[in-house]
Structures are given as structure tokens and as C-alpha cells.
Queue: 2 jobs
Job 1
Amino acid sequence: MRTQVVIIGGGPSGLLLSQLLHLAGIESVVLERQSREHVLSRIRAGVLEQGMADLLRQAQAGDRMDREGFIHDGTQLELSGVGCRIDFRKLTGRAVIVYGQTELTRDLYDARDRLGGRVLHDVQDVTLHGLDGDAPYVSYRVGDTRQRLACDFVAGCDGFHGVSRQSIPHALRREYHRVYPFAWLGVLSQTPPVSAELIYVAHDRGFALCSMRNAKLSRYYVQCDPADAVEQWPDERFWEELKRRIPEAAADRIVTGPALEKSITQCRSFVAEPMQWGRLFLAGDAAHIVPPTGAKGLNLAASDIHYLATGLRQYYQDRDFSGLERYSERALARVWQAERFSWWMSTLLHRFPEHDAFDRRMQRAEQEQLIRSDTAQRLLAENYVGLRY
Ligand code: RFL
Ligand code: PHB
């Protein structure tokens, strides 16, 4: 079997890439380890930058997002008891869209189905071969049958725990890693959101976030210990802790209910360089992770895919290698900006167990600067709505 581009991973990165390539007349096959139901059961990101939204429309997968997504012109910050609204529209002329990753992934699957795209599920033991030559191929197993798929290029869109990144020789790979001393406990509940805008809270007891998926579905987070297990957080404990951290008026009106989903995510920053080796190109979480505070993970995956799809189109249309050769450099320039922003916003809003009195004063001073300075607010807003591609 042969195709032009093998895409490892059927998450948002892989599906978006295969859809954009298809629309440019480039053939691909997506190899996904899990079932479609499993991929669609993961509750993750919720905030889309304009660049990602535009890309989804370009991929003919943006109709439902445009109908059902919510445009947010700003966000609320509650910084050690002081409220502060960041007005994205006023400060940048742009906004973000609140639309869940689960829905977006479903829309991409539907778009792939409509065009007859090839997405293979339950694919095991994916192995990449010949990446440093001009005849790469990928082998994998479905049930008891081992298959081999020859191609021109391999796109590694298989997330942080995937195999693609490991296929780049260790000596040629540089990895940057920061594990934070906290995690996020997230709850999805069938209740109306407490506020029309997201509320990011820095509190002495730890960070909290009020977010949403739609008018009837809320998503809330509290900072917790990375060693905590979900079982230690029965619903009552979660709601009680959330109410202690969020502004009093919000705590008074919040509607609570059973958790439909509850999960704990360790906060980390991670970048692997370079994002290309021979015929292999890494994109999305396969190459980088951000702590979720700036809502950048999914949006960074989208900008990678934009650069990669552009490079592949140039190659297939004009035999011009230059976009592919510059892929890693272009993608990484934007990745590092988003890494900085996510790290900064995490540092601003979380409680660090190792912080001493001086560290806490520095954090408070930074929060105060944001409350009083338009310039500081503009910087936050520019990064939050997303740097241009
Ligand atoms: P994904 O979504 O992880 O998809 C990768 C896909 O590859 C498959 N796979 C393999 N397939 C074949 N062979 C193998 N060997 C494979 N190994 C893995 C996996 O099954 C999966 O389907 O990466 P992608 O497409 O790059 O998309 C990136 C986004 O998913 C990610 O950046 C965000 O969801 C990050 N993230 C969040 N971002 C936000 O902006 N806001 C959030 O609130 C937020 N919450 C989260 C998150 C990521 C989480 N992870 C990765 C644990 C919460 C969690 C729990
Ligand atoms: C979410 O709704 O899941 C969400 C929103 C904003 C973030 C992180 C997660 O910064």
C-alpha cells in the first residue's frame, strides 16, 4: 500500500492536516491507536483563537463552530481578591471562540467522512522506517495482520506519548522540560455556567477557573496536588473548594451538579527541537506541551498544521522544498512565544508550594501591575487571542 503522507494520530492535529491536504489534492492516511469513541470521549481544551477558527473554516469543518460556538470579547481575572476584566476587543480588536475540543474533533471526523478520508482506528505497534532516506514507510498491526504503508512524508501528530518523536535519534533531539508542582482537577457538569465570561482566579488556596462548553454545560478547574487521585475529590469536596476560591458573588449563584467527567492533569511545559528529521515532521502535542493556563495547547497544534500544510502544498504543487525545510524553524518561533506566555500566566495565577514570602510579594506585585496598567493588559490580551501566523 502507498499514500503520499502518512499521518500518525487521529486527534485534532492529524485530522485537521489530513482534511487540509485532501482539499489541496494530496492523499493521506491517518493511523489512530484508539477507537473513534475513545478519541471523542476525551474532554480537553475549550478556547479557540481566531487563527484556529479560520483554519477550521478553510478545512470545511467550521459550520457548527460558527453556529454553536460563543464569541468572547474578554475574560475576567480575580487576582487575590481584586477583579479585573481584560477586554480583548478593545485592546486587540480581536476575540476568541469558546467551543470544545471534543466537538471540534467530531466536526473534523464528520468532514473526513464526507470526503471519504481514510482514518484507520485501533492501529497497534506503529513503527516508522527509512525517515532519513527518500522512501520512508510505516508498519503497523490491525488485529493479527501486520501492514506496511509506503509514503513520501510522515506527519507525527500522535501527542505527547506517541512514537513519532522517539523516532528522531536521541543525539539529534533536544528536549526542554518543566514539571510544575501542581495539577488541574477538571470537572464537567450539566449546569449553566456561573458567568458569561471565563473567570481565572488567583487565590491563596490555589488557582481556579470557571469555563464552559455551552449554555447548559460548565467546565470548572481547581489547582490540586499532582499526587492527588480523582477518588480523593468527591463532587462535594470539589464544589466546596471551588466556591472558596472564586469571587463571593459567583460562589453565591453557582449551580452545582454531578460531575459528568472528572480528571487530573499534571501541569508541564515541554518542547522538542527540531520538529523535523528527514521525512518526519512533528506537530501539536507530539512536539510540545504547555500548561493549560493560557489555553494555548490546541491553538499551537493548529499553527503547526498551518505551516506544515503550507509546506506540503508548496512541495506537491511546485516541487518547492523551501516551506518544508523552514517548517521546524517557523513553527518553533511561535511555539516558544506560546510557551513563554503559558509559563508566565501559570506563574501569575498559581500557588507554588515552595514559594517564600518574597516570591509571594513578587507575584502580588505582578498581579497589581496587571490591574493598573493598560500596557500589561494589552500584552496579556495580544497573547491570549493568539499571535498571528
Ligand atoms: P492529541 O489530542 O493528544 O492526539 C494525539 C492522537 O494520537 C494518538 N496516538 C497514536 N496513534 C497511533 N499510534 C501511536 N503510537 C499513537 N500514540 C498516540 C492518540 O490516541 C491521540 O488520538 O494531540 P494533538 O492532535 O496534537 O492535539 C493537541 C491537543 O489535544 C492538546 O494540545 C490540548 O488538548 C491540550 N490540553 C488543553 N489545551 C488547552 O488549550 N486547554 C485545555 O484545557 C487543555 N486540557 C489538554 C487538556 C491536554 C490533556 N492531555 C494531553 C493529557 C487536558 C488534558 C488531559
Ligand atoms: C477549558 O474550558 O477547558 C479551558 C479554558 C481556558 C483554559 C483552559 C481550559 O485556559
Job 2
Amino acid sequence: MKLKGIIFDLDGVIVSTDELHYIAWKRMADDEGIYFDRKINDRLRGVSRMQSLEIILERAAREYSSEEKTSLAEKKNGLYRELLNTLTPRDRLNGVTETLDNLRKRGFLLAIGSSSRNTPLILEKIGYGDYFDAVSDGNNITHSKPHPEVFLKAAQFLELEPSECLVVEDAEAGIDAARAGGFISVGIGPAAFCERATYGIKNITELVSITDFINC
Ligand code: BG6
Ligand code: MG
């Protein structure tokens, strides 16, 4: 089967918003007196806002009501959106602009597959508002990664089969979602050494040679 489409996770793959998620959750956790560090933060990659909060609350000293949880998630999102206001195209991660342009020149369809409901705002801020051929995000799914829904929808929007698409992810939950959906996967950053990923890369620029290799 020929590879025709590439589906990118957003936070931590295209743009450095993974760091902004961390800063916002850290402020919320500190205000509540809940221990939170970067290792715990890695477990939040790819999972929904409410699931992320549940993971943070594992270290809380008391139970939180569902109203309190909603309000904490809203508080974090408010802090996060304030931070998103500072984003510019310079916050695209190293190698992203040239890699996407190279892949497009080779004829691949390009899509986003992100659990984030803030995807449209982020894409606008980094100058990719109209760039992708399809965007599947937290606004069009009912199940978060590791469920494959977000990637299956992205493939559907591109009018491609999962076997014709490759998924690029920094989250283990995203690698598992890709596998569950029947996609080839490429792990980067914290997911580069995930043994469930089809390939692992250090820099996104390596994607070009991987796609050349798959299609040769
Ligand atoms: C994912 C992030 O892309 O989006 C997760 O990796 C985050 O950490 C999820 O929880 C939901 O994001 P948002 O912007 O809808 O709160
Ligand atoms: Mg990510």
C-alpha cells in the first residue's frame, strides 16, 4: 500500500505548546498544594483535559467534587489560553516548516490529529490556520487517545484508508491510538523510544527519508 497522507499530533510535535500545558497545570497544582512534576506531566500527553486533571488529582490529599473538577479544568484552560496568546510562527518546533513543505512537495496530504480543543486557536497563532488539508481535533471526537477516533476521523477527512497514512506522535497514548487504528506510527520526543511505534526519530526532518523509504 502506498503512503499518501501524514497525520501530525499538534502539541509537542508541531509546536512547543506541550511546555505551556505543563506551566498551566503546574500553576493550578501549586495553587491546590498538589505535587506535580515533569514525569507526571508526560502521562498527560495526548489525553483529554479532564483525564489529565484526574491524573494530577491522584496526588491530591482529598477528594474533589465534579463541580470542583470542572472549575479546576476551566481555571487551567484559562491560564493556558493566556499563554497561547503569546504564540507566534517562531514557536513551531525545529525543522517543522521545512519538513511540512518537503512532504507537501512530494505530494502527501497533511492533517492534524490532536486531542486539543484549542487546536484552531493554536494553528491560527502559528500561521497554519489554512495550511493543513484536514484538521481532526478535540472538538470532533468523543474518545480521547489512546482511542483511535481522532486519527480515523483525520484519515476520513483526507478520504484515505488508515493503511495509507502515517501518524507522527510525541505521546505513548498517541502511538497506541495509531496502532489501534491500523496506522504506521512515528514516535518523536518522549515517544521516540516507544517500542510500540513503527519508527522512532530524533528530529522531525527525518520524516522525509522515512516516507521515501516506505514508498520506494
Ligand atoms: C493534547 C495534549 O494535545 O491535548 C494533552 O497532549 C491535553 O496534554 C489535550 O490535555 C487536551 O488539550 P486542551 O487544549 O483541549 O485542553
Ligand atoms: Mg502531543
